[in-house]
Amino acid sequence: MKTMKAPLKRWTLMLLGTGAVLLVPWMVVLALTLPRSTEVRHWSVAWIGLDVLMATGCAATALLGLRADPRARLTAAATAATAVLDAWFDVTTSPSGGDLVMALGCAVVETALAGACVAMALAEPQKSAAQQKSAAQQKSIAQKGVDPTKPSPAP
């Protein structure tokens, strides 16, 4: 895996920090100017799309994780973010009463999913079966005092 060069990484981080600062006044503008309610077209497509994205993230994370592919950590992080977004919008767009209670119940499940995904994203990468076998072989060779780089003596 390639790593980002230090100057590029520094500039990227500076741009991210600047973006965070610039978003604060933008949020104030939105808070002051957005209507309290609005009619939304394609409401069901938006919600189904978010659930499709979350299901795809879960599936990709499971498949990559079962293969011990380190990219599972990336899909887990993205899936966690999607689950939190889904929970947020479920709760904040639900009317009071039974709909809100159901949204809160879903938010608990989605938050648990996000927590599991974050734990996976932050965990040490797992080794594949081939990597584990190779490590065991190297350990065995080292214990026997054999240097694999030197040729074996002739019989």
Itemize the secondary structure elements and their pairings.
Layout: H1 6-33, H2 43-66, H3 72-93, H4 98-122, H5 129-144
Helix pairs in contact: 2-3, 3-4
Explain this structure.
This protein has 155 residues and is an all-alpha fold. Helices cover 74% and strands 0% of the residues. The chain contains five helices and no strands. The protein has helices spanning 6-33, 43-66, 72-93, 98-122, 129-144. Helix 2 (43-66) runs antiparallel to helix 3 (72-93). The longest helix is centred in the first third of the chain and has 28 residues, at 6-33. The two termini are 43 Å apart.
Task: From the structure above, extract its key features.
single chain; 155 residues
In short:
This protein is mostly helical. It contains five helices and no strands.
Computed Rg: 24 Å
- How far is it from the N-terminal to the C-terminal residue, by CA? 43 Å
Residues in β-strands, percent: under 5%
For the report, how would you describe the main beta sheet? none
So how many helices? 5
SSE ordering? HHHHH
Low-confidence region ranges: none
Count of β-strands? 0
Choose one word for the global shape: elongated
Helix content: over 70%
Structural class: mainly alpha
Rounded mean pLDDT score: 88
